[in-house]
Design goal:
alpha+beta; 2,3-Dihydroxybiphenyl 1,2-Dioxygenase, domain 1; 8-stranded mixed beta sheet; 5-stranded mixed beta sheet; globular
Length: 344
């Protein structure tokens, strides 16, 4: 046999021809979902450019002014599961003012991944995927986890959630720990606590109210922290609100609503696309900028202004809520504002 003649391979002679065949449908579907889930997770974790998959994706660029930005990366993100996750997104929007950021839906109609915010909190959500052991509280018979949302008016938000379809487990009531609180179960089995601080307790006061508990705090950790009141609205005075809207619109990208008549009879334009709500007005007697400090209890704050030596010039109710024009104890003007529903 010539030296360049290849040695016969007996296994090659016995090899059958390659004949492609279709895999089992359930295996193909499961494999595709696993690959798509891994790709989506990789893109979220390492910020790769968006890949094209067989899943359809819709995104929402709408962000609540007080909500988390699309670039926020909280240390912990609750990942919820619901039987009927698309309906759950609608419920959370109606009940808690949730803002949807994105959703991914596969060709079977199941929601594989969605993101939404409630205030500053970010949530993820998916439909049930029993093949991966991903089950909702509806299937499991309940959930051991309660999700708490701080709100400005527990009674109002409780009624809103119940009207949207939640079940009230505990109506609003003042609790020993210094909060007004209510417990709800959403239609998908998740338990929610809505709460508002009404007292600032010291560690000793809390321990006295809960003698059956041993209350301890981490070293140097405060027993309680009061939430400071911040500016909730402000206006800039200008001789011509239309000219100002055009100038600042070009300079800063502000979008201003058409001019309206203010309660004082002056022209006013509300700016709609800024994180801290504000407006433009042409009242020459109103010091610019005029700051409106958002409060939860207008009457209590009015009483406190007087107690501290300040002056309450006028208290009035407008469509946007209760308002108190005040002077501090040195004569500086400011306003207190309790937002009406829909102006939060």
């Amino acid at each position: 046999m010539p030296a360049d003649t290849p040695t016969p391979d007996p296994m090659r002679e016995l090899r059958l021809p390659i004949t492609p065949f279709a895999p089992r449908p359930e295996f193909a579907a499961s494999l595709r979902q696993r690959i798509e889930a891994e790709l989506a997770a990789s893109e979220r974790l390492i910020d790769l450019p968006q890949r094209s998959t067989t899943m359809s994706m819709t995104t929402s660029s709408t962000t609540a002014s007080a909500g988390a930005s699309a670039d926020a990366h909280p240390a912990v993100i609750p990942y919820l599961c619901a039987a009927g996750a698309s309906d759950a997104l609608s419920f959370y929007a109606a009940a808690f003012g949730a803002v949807e950021r994105m959703r991914m839906v596969d060709d079977t109609g199941r929601l594989g991944h969605a993101e939404f915010t409630v205030g500053d909190a970010v949530f993820y959500l998916a439909d049930e995927h029993p093949e991966y052991g991903i089950l909702s509280p509806s299937t499991l018979g309940g959930s051991p986890i309660t999700l708490e949302i701080p709100v400005d008016d527990v009674d109002e938000w409780y009624e809103r959630a119940v009207a949207a379809g939640a079940t009230g487990e505990r109506p609003p009531s003042d609790q020993f720990h210094g909060n007004r609180n209510a417990i709800l179960r959403d239609p998908f089995g998740h338990r929610w606590s809505i709460t508002k601080p009404i007292e600032q307790l010291t560690g000793e006061e809390l321990a006295a109210r809960a003698p059956d508990y041993e209350t301890t705090y981490a070293p140097d950790a405060p027993a309680s922290a009061a939430t400071p009141i911040e500016v909730g609205y402000y206006v800039l005075g200008t001789p011509d609100v239309d000219r100002a809207a055009a100038f600042y619109g070009s300079l800063f990208g502000w979008d201003a609503e058409p001019a309206a008549q203010s309660a004082t009879g002056h022209r006013y334009r509300h700016v709609t696309n800024v994180e801290l709500p504000m407006g433009l007005h042409d009242d020459p007697n109103d010091v610019s900028p005029h700051l409106y400090f958002r409060v939860d209890d207008l009457q209590a704050m009015v009483d406190k202004v007087r107690e501290l030596g300040g002056t309450v010039v006028e208290v009035a109710d407008y469509a946007s809520g209760g308002n108190a024009e005040c002077l501090d104890d040195q004569g500086t003007a400011f306003s207190l504002w309790k937002p009406a529903p829909g102006y939060e």
